[in-house]
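ARCHIVE CARD
Drawer: 12
Card no.: 0347
Subject: one protein chain, sequence and derived structure
Cross-reference: see card 0346
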Amino acid sequence: MSRRFASLALLIGLAAPTSAYAVEISISCSALGQEYEICKQGVDAWSKKTGNTAKIVSTPNSATERLALYQQLLAAGAGDIDVFQIDVVWSGMLSQHFQDLTAKAQGVIDQHFPTMIETSRVKGKLVAMPWFADAGLLYYRKDLLQKHNRPVPQTWSDLTETARTVQAAERQGGSRDLWGFVWQGRAYEGLTVNALEWVSSHNGGTIVDEKGEITINNPKAAAALKTAAGWVGTITPEGVLNYTEEESRGVFQAGNAVFMRNWPYAWALAQGPESAIKDKVGIAPLPKGGADGRNAGTLGGQLLAVSRYSKNAEAATDLVMYLTSADEQKRRAIAGSFNPTIPTLFKDAEITKANPFMGDLLTVFTNAVARPAAATGDNYNKVSTEFFDTVHQVLSKRAEPEQALSRLDRDLKRIKRSGWQ
């Protein structure tokens, strides 16, 4: 290891190999919640099976800090980490530093959700393998819908009407803090996720399509943003403009919202012993933009990639294929409620017994919408920032949708001129 990276290695917990085995590799695993321990169990099982050893590198919980560390190591061609755990939107940004896994994945690649493979493939190369998935969900209060004889909303119009009706009736009955719908409205990546769901559900595209063409400036996208802006201050608190996942979950879990948009992680917490709404929560796909719209939860999740600078790429690739296999994804689903990326597992009896809600998520992941990270490459962060800033202006009534999207189109074309990759 070079002197230049000695301090970095110490920072992330690396040490000189001491194993007697011929091959020792390292893998980065998140330490958020149960992730580290569940990862360690899988890595240890692979080591026992192959006779190789693998060292787990604990990386920062902050996605921003983790990406910065990865970029620093990879840009210098450092081989400190053989296998990288990456977010689904990092594949385009980091693709030039990863091995092409296409040949090794033959025979199993088609087992995964197409959207997960789409976000793992850049310029025809499979630069990562899907590990676990996330997608946006609609959470709702079963008790309140039943009380007011309202079905689970199928369209955003249905949700708006139901939220308004239940909110008004409950407030009149004394629940003055109740809101109809909470979500993530702060100007950050989470707003890109939410707004992409609104736009895609109205058939307004995905900001930039898979060919790299800018598509956001269209009437359906404008209509989606107009609908969302109408929620703020009526069925949604104005404070939502500074909400992330946890702020919206806090309001919903305290019993102060009828509906919530969030990731699957919120389910277990809403059902926890300290939750004010335990056993009162249901989940469903996010609503369609209208009768001709679609259900569109934005795709999230994690991938595993092999570094181009790995000195043991063959063993590293074998570890990736093991950890992303159906058997290992089943174990992770049962042990840690991690959503598989393989559709058939959502019908597995042992998985659905351990996680009763998981069987209902198959449709959500099948219809999940990928952010345009693969198409925009290194410029994805710039594209996302321009998008969520524009949406935030519309939501806060500082701009009309049509004019805002026209300016966004101009700004994205300026970024594109420098090249997406």
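Annotation on reverse: The longest helix spans residues 156-172. The CA atoms of residues 175 and 256 lie 8 Å apart.
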